[in-house]
Specification:
Elements lengths: L4 H11 L20 E3 L10 H6 L9 E5 L3 E3 L2 E3 L6 E5 L6 E4 L11 E3 L4 E4 L2 E4 L12 E3 L4 E4 L2 E3 L5 E3 L3 E5 L2 E4 L1 E6 L2 E5 L2 E4 L9 E7 L9 E5 L2 E4 L2 E7 L6 E4 L2 E2 L10
Length: 267
């Protein structure tokens, strides 16, 4: 019983009803330093998202908002571990899209990588175009920092779309698309009211997808993936997940699962 108590407290907190987010650090009432604007048209100082991040001082202790104007940003974006308290916010009806094509490795391929704690991201699209045929890892986003939130964001790829590597993360009203292990890692995360889109059918009838590959490696580890009030749709067939490590833990709670899910559930 002692082994599961920590997780019970986590799970009950995550699925508790009400409009308040499950983590006390998820809110927007912060005092911001002067904002930074990114616009490819040249009307602002920064034309790339990475140059705006690079301009923030290391070991910054105040929230800084980077407003990103609409457009397709073809760049790799990395938030280093010494640049906390960054709030990336997309502006406009057409959400800004960050695209990169790379499938070299899990570490080298991500379009977006965040190593820092205390990061907030809103209304951005992250796309990895490096998957394709034959299927191979191509990560749209890799998150290793603690206390990171995504609101109304989308992550598009094929294999290994979202590397939810470690730390406490909260996703709300997000869209995550892929075919094979496209939400994976050892994060302690909740996905609330998100749309999970399987595209395994695009690779033929013989391709069966896997939504998650959770990587909890020890009996006392607190990490898990919890999907609360989510909607699972798409084409082709897919399992809800498979274990990436020996103690993998994934929960779909009060979520809608379409008929694309293999009746067995998990592999």
């Amino acid at each position: 019983m002692s082994k599961i108590l920590p997780f019970l407290f986590l799970f009950l907190g995550l699925v508790n009803g009400g409009g308040n987010p499950p983590y006390p650090w998820f809110h927007y009432e912060h005092v911001f330093s002067p904002a930074i604007y990114v616009d490819q048209s040249g009307f602002t100082k920064f034309k790339t998202i990475q140059s705006a991040i690079d301009a923030i001082p290391s070991n910054n202790l105040r929230w800084i908002c980077i407003f990103i104007m609409p457009g397709i940003y073809r760049e790799k974006v990395t938030i280093p571990s010494d640049k906390q308290y960054i709030y990336l916010k997309g502006v406009g009806i057409q959400r800004p899209t960050i695209v990169w094509d790379n499938s070299e490795s899990l570490v080298a391929s991500p379009t977006f990588t965040s190593y820092a704690d205390n990061i907030k991201v809103e209304k951005l699209q992250f796309v990895s175009g490096g998957g394709g045929k034959p299927l191979k890892p191509a990560v749209a986003a890799m998150i290793t920092g603690d206390k990171t939130t995504f609101y109304e964001c989308s992550f598009a790829g094929v294999q290994d779309t979202l590397l939810d590597a470690q730390g406490r993360h909260y996703f709300k009203h997000c869209i995550i698309e892929g075919a094979i292990d496209f939400i994976f890692g050892a994060g302690q995360s909740i996905y609330e009211e998100c749309k999970i889109v399987v595209n395994a059918g695009s690779f033929g009838e013989r391709t069966t997808g896997y939504i998650t590959a959770q990587g909890r490696s020890g009996a006392y580890d607190s990490n898990a993936f919890v999907f609360k009030n989510c909607n699972v749709i798409g084409n082709g067939m897919a399992y809800l997940g498979r274990a990436w490590r020996s103690y993998a833990r994934t929960i779909f709670f009060n979520s809608s699962l379409s008929n694309i899910i293999v009746s067995q559930g998990n592999d």
